[in-house]
Structure formats: structure tokens, C-alpha cells
Write a structure and sequence with these properties.
244 residues, alpha/beta, Elongation Factor Tu (Ef-tu), domain 3, Rossmann fold, 2 domains, three-stranded antiparallel sheet, 8 helices, 31% strand
């Protein structure tokens, strides 16, 4: 995992929580979508958290201070605009916690009581714990039990749903996790918003790669999302398309 601060004054001024950018490091590089974790309007910069998993992300995180990036397009997508007057729970899995952080910050600023559930394989891969703990309670879940409680984020969320009245759940991370979160909250009637992560190329709705089915209708995550009602998303179709 790497943090990159990128000089992008116009994006820093116009960005709202929930929006993202598409980065192309140089000629021949992939176009890579990343959530903007934070902005600094005075410095004119945006911050990204990047997991280096392939050639293009590897090249990006090897840049040294002062080196240029050819294209940073954004802000893209619709701002979340989430407001909750009571208890809001944000559920992040892996690098999805970077998506959760600006949403949790917005909810807290709007007066919600925020609990964040973080999921990770082990304690060494937990993201943004310190930052999120400044916004409210943080519940950690790891596969091996080296941080927080051992088990799935849905186990922790189930306990929270049973103990308190929750007005909103926001989730970001692997599709199976967001699917499970949405199914868990359904019988409780709790509004659930999922930040979807389909294949994305241009970010303007032209390529159609990020199409998803929501409430029986085709939507494009890059221009209609990335946030959608988790109870209306066809997660089975999304999972199949991502696997293909």
C-alpha cells in the first residue's frame, strides 16, 4: 500500500466525498481509477492510496517527488451527499477502507455518530485506523486475529445491528463483502449504500465497461455512481462480470 500526494489544484478545489479520479502515468499506461482519500485546497493537492498489484500501479508508486504524471482526470462520479442524523456505520474491506474514509469524515461533519468496521487479512494491512478513530469508534476485523476481533466484518456488523438503531450503512471493498453486507442489512430495513468497483476505462460513460444493473435497469458506475443502493444492486451479475 502506498500514499501518493499529487499536485492537482483544480481537482482539489472541486472534489467532493465519493468522487474519484482516473490516472494515466504516461504513454501506454493503463487508465487507473482511484478514490480521492483527502484534498488540501491550500496546497492544491489530492491524496490517493494505491495498492501496487501490477505493472501500471507499480510504475505509479515508484515515482519520486517532482516527477510528472501525464493525466489526472477528475473529479469524476457523483458526490455521495450522505447525511445521517443518528448512528451511521461504515464498513470497509482491504483497500476499500480508503473509499470509506472520506465518507465517514463527511458523515461525522454532518452530525452523524460514526462507527467504522475495518476488515483486513492481518493487522499489518489495516488502513487509516488512526484517522478513522478521530471520527468515531473503530471496530477491527482480521482473518488471523492479529488485530481487533477474528472473523468477518459482517460478524461485527451483525452485532451492531442487534445492539443499536442504525440509520445508514455505507460499504466499500470486495464485491462478495459488499454483497454480504447488503443482504445482512436487508431484513433490518437499514438503508445501505455500496460503492461499486466494476471495470472502468474512460470514466465518462462512453465505453460501457462499468455497467451495472440497479433495480432492473442498466447504470454506469462512473457517471451514475459509484454509490448505489446496495439492496437494489444485482451483485450476482457484477461478480460474474468481474470474474470474466
Amino acid at each position: 500500500m502506498h500514499r501518493l500526494e499529487i499536485s492537482a489544484p483544480r481537482i482539489a478545489q472541486g472534489h467532493r466525498p465519493g468522487q474519484f479520479v482516473i490516472v494515466r502515468q504516461g504513454p501506454g499506461s493503463e487508465r487507473l481509477p482511484f478514490t480521492v482519500v483527502s484534498t488540501d485546497a491550500e496546497r492544491g493537492s489530492i491524496e490517493l492510496i494505491i495498492q501496487a498489484v501490477g505493472k501500471s500501479t507499480g510504475e505509479l508508486v515508484r515515482l519520486t517527488p517532482g516527477q510528472p504524471i501525464d493525466d489526472v482526470a477528475g473529479p469524476l462520479g457523483r458526490p455521495s451527499g450522505l447525511v445521517a442524523r443518528g448512528h451511521a456505520v461504515c464498513v470497509g474491506g482491504g483497500v476499500g477502507t480508503a473509499v470509506v474514509y472520506p465518507i465517514a469524515r463527511e458523515l461525522a461533519a454532518n452530525g452523524a455518530r460514526v462507527t467504522t468496521v475495518i476488515g483486513a487479512p492481518s493487522g499489518g494491512s489495516v488502513l487509516l485506523e488512526d484517522e478513522l478513530s478521530q471520527l468515531g469508534t473503530v471496530v477491527g476485523c482480521t482473518d488471523d486475529g492479529t488485530y481487533g476481533r477474528r472473523g468477518l466484518v459482517t460478524d461485527a456488523l451483525r452485532d451492531l445491528l442487534s445492539e443499536d438503531d442504525i440509520e445508514l450503512v455505507f460499504t466499500a471493498g470486495p464485491v462478495p463483502m459488499m454483497w454480504a453486507v447488503s443482504e445482512l442489512t436487508r431484513p433490518f430495513g437499514v438503508r445501505t449504500v455500496a460503492s461499486l468497483n466494476p471495470i472502468m476505462v474512460d470514466g465518462t460513460g462512453m465505453c460501457g465497461g462499468c455497467r451495472v444493473t440497479v433495480d432492473g435497469q442498466m447504470r454506469f458506475a462512473c457517471v451514475d455512481g459509484p454509490d448505489f443502493d446496495g439492496h437494489l444492486v444485482d451483485f450476482a451479475e457484477l461478480a460474474e462480470r468481474l470474474t470474466t
